[in-house]
Amino acid sequence: MFVRRFSLRDFRSWDSLTLDLVPGTTVFLGSNGHGKTNILESLGYLSTLSSHRVSSDAPMIRNGSASAFAGATVVNSGRELTIDVELIEGKSNRARINQSPARRPREVLGILQSVMFAPEDLSLVRGDPGDRRRYLDELLTFRIPRMAAVRADYDKVLRQRSALLKTAGGALRRGSGSGENVLSTLEVWDGHLAAHGAQLLAGRLELVHDLAPHLAESYRSIAPESRPASMRYRSSFGTSLDPEFTDPTRIPGIDDVAYLEERFHHELSVMRTKEIDRGVCLVGPHRDDLELILGDSPAKGFASHGESWSFALSLRLAGFALLRTEGSDPVLLLDDVFAELDRRRRRALAAVAATAEQVIVTAAVPEDVPDELEAAKFGVEASETPEGRISRIVSKDWSATTDLSEGVENRD
Ligand SMILES: Nc1ncnc2c1ncn2[C@@H]1O[C@H](COP(=O)(O)OP(=O)(O)OP(=O)(O)O)[C@@H](O)[C@H]1O
């Protein structure tokens, strides 16, 4: 698939931009802090409804504006769909598909599939479990779009159940009669949590099973002199779950969801007193992790800086390879990453990028982009204006390269 056109309004440093793109590699070039990453972030947002840099939407709205807009026309096997999202300060976001309002923004998920590799990805290896869960869930949603609804339902039940756990703790400590009522309501929420959680968990386990060989292969090609890379899902269910279930080589079965739902229920009953004491939900997919292993050791806290980079890149390339084997052709978004890589890893990444239908790259200077990637180039420059610092596409002399910014308007 490829993005044929995209538009921004009041998105970070871009007050207004409409740009036509083509398949192949497109590079946005400019000095630090001029607005290149903001472009990739907006495409990533249209793809996943979240930013790779911030956990809330507010920072993406241009300073002084009440809302931001990002839209893209995506061509997938000859079929064109236009999606757009409006981020509104203090209100729910709005999304449209082919100009028609979507009932929920998450309906746009899956239309623009992308894999982004960015400096922030080091946190996949070194950061908190939440970063790795997000990595898994984004891929899962591309594979199985209905998983976006399962995740949303799970999060909703989790919030309600957590609030109830706090109430239950208070009521039982006071010895009030309402404690009994709260406990029976908790049973109902346990059922909902286990039902949604089991689906999410089964989806993640199947994903890890399918992803693991691609990870091993990607890491081998990037860092052949290093130890082998592997992954394993770590469940918060403890001994309630047969360890065989998290073995990435185990072939998922059709009864998995039912088994996991039953185990989830069981684990909730085991943890009941502890959960009420603490007032939080202690087990479930929201407490799980993806273990990344280098040789026989956990990559986190053990891998060198270079190995961690290779691991993070391999995770992204593994996701890209998996989606491609399943018939999808995600857009590859590479945020200023070539300058960070040594020659071997640059070549490995360039080789994969050359096979993608569309690659969008940011770089400070043309020399940062490997020669193997024939690229169309746009210059990006920000300047101070009465409305603040605003980014623009500018014409540059790239000498002997294709400068597409000639004639491009930063249109309304
Ligand atoms: N909400 C916002 N409103 C206005 N400007 C913003 C907002 N958020 C970020 N910016 C501006 O965007 C610019 C940073 O843009 P971006 O991160 O895209 O830079 P970049 O060109 O990718 O730089 P680097 O090469 O250093 O990564 C900064 O000037 C910052 O002040």
From TrEMBL:
<keyword id="KW-0235">DNA replication</keyword>
<dbReference type="InterPro" id="IPR042174">
    <property type="entry name" value="RecF_2"/>
</dbReference>
<keyword id="KW-0963">Cytoplasm</keyword>
<comment type="similarity">
    <text>Belongs to the RecF family.</text>
</comment>
<dbReference type="InterPro" id="IPR001238">
    <property type="entry name" value="DNA-binding_RecF"/>
</dbReference>
<feature type="binding site">
    <location>
        <begin position="30"/>
        <end position="37"/>
    </location>
    <ligand>
        <name>ATP</name>
    </ligand>
</feature>
<keyword id="KW-0742">SOS response</keyword>
<keyword id="KW-0067">ATP-binding</keyword>
<dbReference type="InterPro" id="IPR027417">
    <property type="entry name" value="P-loop_NTPase"/>
</dbReference>
<keyword id="KW-0547">Nucleotide-binding</keyword>
<feature type="domain" description="RecF/RecN/SMC N-terminal">
    <location>
        <begin position="3"/>
        <end position="364"/>
    </location>
</feature>
<keyword id="KW-0227">DNA damage</keyword>
<dbReference type="InterPro" id="IPR018078">
    <property type="entry name" value="DNA-binding_RecF_CS"/>
</dbReference>
<dbReference type="Pfam" id="PF02463">
    <property type="entry name" value="SMC_N"/>
</dbReference>
<comment type="function">
    <text>The RecF protein is involved in DNA metabolism; it is required for DNA replication and normal SOS inducibility. RecF binds preferentially to single-stranded, linear DNA. It also seems to bind ATP.</text>
</comment>
<dbReference type="InterPro" id="IPR003395">
    <property type="entry name" value="RecF/RecN/SMC_N"/>
</dbReference>
<keyword id="KW-0234">DNA repair</keyword>
<keyword id="KW-0238">DNA-binding</keyword>
<protein>
    <recommendedName>
        <fullName>DNA replication and repair protein RecF</fullName>
    </recommendedName>
</protein>
